[in-house]
Amino acid sequence: MSPYDMSVQHTGTNHELDAPPWLRVESTLMSTARAIREAFDAHFAPLGLNLTQASVIAYVEEFGPVSQTKIADHLRLGRASIGATIDRLQERELLERLVDDEDRRVWKIALSTSGATMARRIAAIDEVLRADLRDGITREERHALASVMTRLQQNVVRAVEAATAASSPSNPTSNPTEQS
Q1: Calpha distance 114→6 (Å, rounded)
Q2: Which residues are within 8 A (CB) of 170 and not within 5 positions of it... i.e. 6 or more apart?
């Protein structure tokens, strides 16, 4: 039974806003995202990887040697966090750090031979798991969901930017304890 089915059962209505907070769309999205991550982590575990590590390898495989900053930006993770992930993958000899010929201060992250083999194994697992996750969901439904999720993500970015701007030290209304 889906969370939406439970909200209908619990409230006797079909309107998600009448559902309790833990059954509203945002909560469903967050719990679904956690479940998807858990599914990927479980499927990548036999390779000794988690979703973040597999994503780094897949990104480097697709885009070739790339800076750590580009990887962090693409995965929406901090540079320190992605640096620690890259360190672990480099220790396993799946990635290599190469000096950037254009800027010797920058390291390019590249796949090693073992990393290229691992990338193929990741792609095979990804293909099977995505098919399982999409079972019973039409292409049109996936496109509609992607469209809504893209708009929601844009709204989230704006909400974060607004909250950040409102709480910045340069905003005189950001600290309610200050008195004029």
Answers
A1: 46
A2: none
Question: In what side-by-side order are the strands of the sheet with 107-111?
Answer: 66-67, 107-111, 95-99
Q: Within 10 A of 104 (CB to CB), how many other CB atoms are there?
A: 8
Q: Which residues pair with 111 in a beta bridge?
A: 95
Nearest 10 degrees: CA dihedral of 116, 119, 123, 126? 170
Determine the distance from the C-alpha atom of residue 149 to the mean position of all C-alpha atoms in its chain, rounded to a whole number: 13
| Consecutive H or E run containing 22 | none
CA separation for the pair 179, 177 (Å, rounded): 6
The answer to whether residues 78 and 69 touch, using CB atoms and an 8 Å cutoff, is no
Q: Which amino acid is at 58?
A: A
What is the radius of gyration, based on Cα positions, of the chain? 21
Distance CA 21, CA 143 (A): 27
User: How many whole angstroms from its chain centre is CA 9?
Assistant: 32
Distance between CA atoms of residues 65 and 97, nearest Å: 9
The string of pLDDT tens digits covering residues 14-64 is 666 676 766 678 888 999 999 999 999 999 999 999 999 999 999 999 998
Alpha-carbon gap, residue 149 to 32, rounded angstroms: 13
pTM: 0.75
Tally the residues of the chain.
Answer: 180
